[in-house]
Structure to design on (442 residues):
DNA sequence: GCCAACATCAGGGGTAGCCCTGAAACCGGG
DNA sequence: CCCGGTTTCAGGGCTACCCCTGATGTTGGC
């Protein structure tokens, strides 16, 4: 009952891997309309063939550049309806925000070694081609981490922000407790909670109280 | 052999004192071209008579205003070559920075009760009229105190600033020692020295490490 | 109504960061 | 040449700040 099969363009500089994926996809009723090995080819193929989805391998270290990611960003801007599924060995965090831009429709990012099975991969291609969003859990973790890096104070509770504000004024735990009417133990409890929430693990080289104050000051310009 | 005597304008609301100073200066080959008793008179006299120097008494508490000081600031801005010698009973610290502004050429500030002798006073008038700078030692003390309040880091040694810079990055004493090749004990020694130099007494309500970091950050915008 | 998150606090323990004194080496200036 | 300031460090002590677990009451959402 399939009227038109999903049209796929494959981008990968490794011929073998490309062929393998193409064969795999065609076994699952996809139509691989083009295979390219570099960013220019990808651009041209998408413009000429108008596929439903581009499956792009980001092959970077140590040889290649980030051209896969860069052209992915470009493609999403130029072809809003195009699905883009990225495959990578590593997690390239730098381009994630710009890649998703405003919306996360028709985009995917999978880590190769974490794709458990063929079914999961095919499922991902289908979902992305249909405008869905498929992200490796690790990618999700990293993005929320990045968000909380942008405004780490939003992860704190109101009370914790009060305590941190006083810490940032150079007050001692004793003084904080006196001002907020808390026992010293409770102040310590809040301080500990602040540390963990700000992602400040107890490194021997860090003075976490100062680091917490610094993040607080940065968030308040 | 004096071609033109130094031309002086005297400003003081007390007639007796004014006359006494005028007589004293004329005994020492100065030419007192004008005597005034208020700020307006001073302004007009300087504009009309173009003296080399204005000797101004700041007569304030409890009656008068700070008009002497204010007009002194104004005069220095309007007449860059005019010497201005201020006489005061008290030390008025508030106007000192704005009084000196960019340069301290042709300006003087003496405390009456600390003028030891007539020779010293005459010498001061001469120096200021010639574009020099005469300041009571107490004034100097107060200015450097103000400067060290404005930039407390200048009171630190080079090594202490290195340590404080690392503290301001949230590093622990251990990490600081490792980076600067110091034993932990030496780091502690520097930290203690930084505290005392920044005037951070061991108050139970203060977290001095944070306070030291804050002053460091303030000094670096 | 229950569960999760928050806020409060206690008990009990470790140690980094602080205190003080003292001392040695160096260096520049009166 | 000695003297004050800087830099380096040790010994010895104290406690504020940190860790962990666990308990209680409150709140808000499903």
């Amino acid at each position: 009952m399939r009227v038109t099969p999903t049209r796929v363009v494959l981008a990968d500089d490794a011929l073998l891997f490309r062929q393998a994926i193409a064969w795999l996809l065609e076994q699952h009723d996809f139509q691989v309309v083009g295979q390219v090995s570099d960013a220019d080819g990808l651009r041209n193929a998408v413009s000429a063939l108008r596929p439903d989805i581009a499956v792009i391998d980001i092959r970077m270290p140590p040889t290649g550049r980030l051209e896969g990611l860069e052209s992915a960003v470009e493609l999403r801007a130029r072809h809003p309806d195009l699905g883009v599924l990225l495959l990578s060995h590593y997690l390239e965090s730098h381009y994630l925000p710009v890649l998703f831009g405003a919306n996360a429709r028709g985009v995917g990012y999978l880590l190769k070694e974490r794709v458990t099975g063929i079914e999961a991969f095919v499922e991902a291609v289908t979902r992305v081609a249909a405008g869905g969003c498929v992200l490796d859990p690790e990618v999700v973790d990293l993005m929320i981490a990045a968000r909380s890096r942008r405004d780490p104070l939003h992860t704190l509770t109101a009370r914790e922000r009060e305590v941190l504000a006083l810490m940032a004024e150079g007050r001692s735990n004793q003084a904080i407790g006196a001002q907020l009417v808390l026992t010293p133990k409770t102040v310590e409890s809040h301080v500990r909670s602040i540390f963990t929430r700000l992602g400040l693990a107890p490194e021997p080289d860090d003075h976490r109280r100062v680091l917490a104050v610094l993040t607080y000051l940065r968030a308040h310009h």
Q: What stands out?
A: Residues 172-174, 184, 188, 191-192, 195, 202, 208-209 of chain A lie near DNA strand D (CB under 10 Å from a C1'). Chain A touches chain B at residues 167-175, 178, 204-211, 213-214, 217 (CB under 8 Å). The mean pLDDT of chain A is 83. The first strand of chain A starts at residue 7 and ends at 11.
